Amino acid sequence: MVYSLPQLLPLAEPEKLENSQQLVLFTKQWHPSQLKVDHFHEVILNECTIKELKKVLSEVSEIPVAEIEIAKGRGTFPCELSVLEMQSELDWNPSVETLGEWPLYINDDGAVLYYRDKTEAVKELSEEEKKEIKKAETARLGGSQPKTNYVSPRKERALKIHVNLPADGE
């Protein structure tokens, strides 16, 4: 069997992760006035505190630190949620000082956090607009089951175990 080495690509910018003590999180900004969620943005924290997180998010989003509210994504990655439920179903701005406290319990890299500007008003929708959004999101999210686009690079093979049993009389 021939193995090939992965192709090495240069980074577009210097590596931001400097040591294993830093925490890497995936964040998405929620825009209640537009009923829209931005794409993922990776943030790196030197301290696992809400203060540090809000400071970093403020730098990324230009929202003043005092106006940022956060919520932990629900379920497994990518933590998709309907924009109709985003405002009410997430636990916005939990009163904790560190990310490791309940209800966040973020101690490892890769957690998903949503954030918003608390001064931004929620868009009011008619019943017809709500139905259209539900229809579009049902198609996007695949009903209650999130779609995955993961394809395994190899086929699984059955494991065979051969056991040599001793012959009678040995």
TrEMBL record:
Domain Ubiquitin carboxyl-terminal hydrolase 47 C-terminal stretches: 10-161
Domain of life: Eukaryota
Presence of the UniProt keyword Hydrolase in the record: yes
Matches recorded under InterPro entries: USP47_C (IPR045578)
MF-aspect GO terms: hydrolase activity
Name of one Pfam family that matches: USP47_C
Protein name: Putative ubiquitin carboxyl-terminal hydrolase 47
Origin species: Stichopus japonicus (Sea cucumber)
Classification of source organism: Eukaryota, Metazoa, Echinodermata, Eleutherozoa, Echinozoa
